[in-house]
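Still learning. Show one?

>
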Amino acid sequence: MAQKSTISITFKIPFQILVGVIGVIFSLFPWYNLPYMSIIFAAMICIAEGRSMWEHSRRRKDNVAKVPEAVRELIDLVGARRS
């Protein structure tokens, strides 16, 4: 999972840099007093990563819930072989 997160982050960094450069260029205009694009893009990244983490945690919980069932199946399998 850490590898997927690293790939995801390295994919988004160039876009963040691009948005930052555009923000610097726009800062030359008097009506542009805050880096709106950078703020919005950073918020979008945070929302996307948060959603991804939420989905991964649900998958982990689903897999953990299956452990007792798998153990019972193994016990039944071993019990059937010994009989």
Notes: The CA atoms of residues 58 and 80 lie 34 Å apart.
